[in-house]
Amino acid sequence: MEVHHRFLKETIKLLLLAAFLVPLASPYGLRPEPPEFIAQCKRRLDLKCGNAINIYLFGRGTPFPDSCCRNLVRPGLPCHEAVITKHLLGKPKGFVCKILKKSEQIWRHCVSYSTTKQ
What we know:
By secondary structure, the protein is an all-alpha fold. It has one domain (2-116). The protein has six helices and no strands. α5 packs antiparallel against α6. The relative contact order is 0.14.
């Protein structure tokens, strides 16, 4: 009986620890996609455009060429979100909020640009 009681106590401790750590590891409920999916998404994005968008999003805010928009939109929103999420896991909430907002603006701009320039 005591072994069962000790097992139950340890299980509860683990669940409480997980309940505390999971929100820290994934702010805003962000969940990473499988690494294979992210790698596939990155392969579909031109390296030059990927770097330019990355610098705009996470760096100095230097505008990227509109010509990169089709390159970003072609793989689709799930790819865009998966790559952004990968970079945001474990980051402070204020930073995550700022980047998610910029990411959404980039996506809307690029979808708009891509549909008008066909």
